[in-house]
Design goal:
Layout: E1 2-7, H1 15-25, E2 29-34, H2 44-51, H3 69-76, E3 79-85, H4 87-95, H5 101-108, E4 113-117, H6 121-124, H7 127-138, E5 142-143, E6 147-150, E7 156-160, H8 164-178, E8 185-190, E9 195-196, E10 202-203, H9 210-221, E11 225-230, E12 242-245, H10 249-259, E13 265-268, E14 275-277, E15 296-298, H11 302-309, E16 314-321, H12 325-335, E17 340-345, E18 355-362, E19 365-374, H13 375-399
Parallel strand pairs: 1-2, 1-3, 3-4, 4-5, 8-11, 8-13, 11-12, 13-16, 16-17
Antiparallel strand pairs: 6-7, 9-10, 14-15, 17-18, 18-19
Helix pairs in contact: 1-2, 1-8, 3-5, 4-7, 9-13
Length: about 400
């Protein structure tokens, strides 16, 4: 295991030395990245002496340009931790500013990120900082929040760097989570499907694809091999996933059935059209003074097919409802032979939002309600529950139940 430890300009920078030592005791290799401001508080020599590795202090550091260094570091680590994380670095990360090695590494890094902020209490509570924190949490980054107490500036309040033991424990926990799906295959569907009426018009729905893409990203960050089958969206596929673009419900069914037999976990977050035109017009339908009637037929129910063919996969469905949310969710879960179901009320127009309120159900009922959470947070919780189901199923099979 290898962690990149970023150290920024804050009086608490000296505590990063003990964080590094704690990680080394846990058997974790540490690559230190010291920003120019961080080097005003602690020296590269201290970290080099204790880590027996070169400390990166500059984007174009002499002797480290044989390859594209920020890329090679990003590909070699399992976690990027920034201890302490100043308001400045949170702002850079949140808005994609890459003007030094640490911020450029952040943009190149596919691994999980952990941030331990430390700053003046007024800075920590400033709306700009709080907004940046929410942006970064929305990307699924781990936070070790600052603690209340006396600050170096003489003020008192929340802003002190969390204790070294807590930070080290959270880094170790994040590393374990980051490998929790290693060796597993996760199949995710996302977005809407599109059913053509004619060469110009089509039937579709309001799904943005954000939930499915968040699940794919979270699964990849946990070490899984991820297959993302997606209808048309405006989103970029997460790094490292196998991306399969489709358009119609029929195309999605074919792609899903191709990957389903070898999948361990299947998350069907796509909003698949229930109906399609019996026959799409070959030319644009011209308007006239008469009414237009479309003859529709049912599309195949992909989730029901998967439920019937299930052979050890953990199958997760979604239910977007406008009334009797939990009643409809429980009925759908039983009818389609699902292991888990995520239910949310879409009557308030939540499509396209980065946050949601959902209920996660198992056969016995609701196991967790997540209120106003980012979709990355929901994705993480959902994968936790999917792994729990898988472990129970494996244990039951081994015991012969």
């Amino acid at each position: 295991m290898k962690v990149a430890l970023g150290i920024t300009g804050c009086i608490a920078a000296y505590k990063a030395i003990e964080v590094m030592r704690g990680l080394q005791k846990a058997g974790i290799s540490v690559q230190v990245i010291l920003t120019r401001s961080g080097a005003q508080f602690v020296t590269p020599l201290t970290f080099e002496s204790l880590s027996a590795q070169n400390v990166i202090t500059d984007m174009f550091q002499q002797g480290q340009n044989r390859d594209i260094h920020h890329i090679s570091v990003a590909q070699s680590i399992q976690l990027l931790a920034v201890v302490p994380a100043t308001a400045n670095i949170l702002g850079k990360f949140a808005h994609g500013i890459a003007d030094d090695f640490l911020s450029t590494l952040y943009l190149s890094n596919p691994a999980p990120v952990l941030l331990a902020p430390a700053m003046n209490v007024e800075m920590w509570n400033h709306p700009a900082v709080r907004s940046n924190v929410e942006i970064l949490k929305g990307r699924g980054h781990y936070f070790v929040n600052p603690e209340p107490g006396p600050l170096a500036c003489g003020m008192e309040g929340e802003g002190r760097l969390a204790s070294v033991d807590v930070i080290v424990a959270r880094i170790v926990e994040a590393l374990r989570t980051g490998e929790s799906l290693a060796g597993m295959r996760v199949l995710v569907t996302a977005g809407p499907t599109v059913e053509d009426i004619d060469p110009v018009r089509f039937l579709s729905n309001r799904s943005s694809g954000k939930m499915g893409y968040a699940v794919a990203q979270a699964a990849r960050q946990r070490g899984a091999e991820v297959f993302l089958v997606s209808g048309p969206t405006a989103l970029k596929a997460p790094s490292g996933v196998r991306f399969v673009p489709v358009r119609s419900a029929a195309q999605m069914k074919d792609a899903v059935l191709q990957f389903y037999p070898s999948a361990d976990i299947v998350v069907k977050a796509a909003a698949v059209a229930d109906y399609r035109p019996v026959e799409a017009a070959p030319q644009k339908i011209k308007k006239n003074d008469n009414s237009l009637t479309l003859q529709l037929e049912r599309t195949e129910d992909i989730l029901a097919i998967l439920g019937r063919q299930k052979k050890g996969q953990v199958l997760v469905g979604f239910a977007a409802e406008t009334e009797r949310l939990l009643d409809h969710a429980r009925e759908k879960m039983a009818r389609k032979n699902l292991d888990l179901l995520v239910a949310n009320d879409v009557s308030a127009g939540v499509f396209g939002s980065d946050r949601s309120t959902v209920h996660i159900l198992e056969a016995g009922g609701v196991i967790e309600t997540l209120t106003d959470r980012s979709k990355m947070e929901i994705a993480g919780k959902l994968l936790d529950h999917a792994m729990s189901v898988r472990k129970r199923s494996t244990a039951a099979a081994q015991s012969g139940e």
